[in-house]
Amino acid sequence: MAQFDDIETQIYEFAKQNAEKTGCKLNPDYDIVAMAIKGIANNKKKYGEQYCSCREITRNKETDRKIICPCVYRSRELEQRGACKCALFVR
User: Fold this and answer.
1) DSSP H or E run through 38
2) What are the tens digits of pLDDT across the range 43-78?
3) Which CATH superfamily is domain 31-91 in?
4) Residue 26 DSSP SS3
5) Is residue 30 helix, strand or coil?
């Protein structure tokens, strides 16, 4: 992941480790992973949290806690569609 900046590399490593621990994997399509990671990193820089880049941020901390990557919707989406909404994680 040489073209990622430090925060993007940290988020990538976190996502990779989380996928391994939870029995899913990162999308094999590098472009999709790069786009999702960059979006999450931008949200981290702007809002201070790793909010999913595919979810709308309300700026209500309690509501938005659900969309911190990996979001609460991931398991259901993996089960139903084989990928989460942003397609960072796949079965």
Assistant:
1) helix 30-47
2) 999 999 999 999 999 999 999 999 999 999 999 999
3) Ferredoxin thioredoxin reductase catalytic beta subunit (3.90.460.10)
4) strand
5) helix
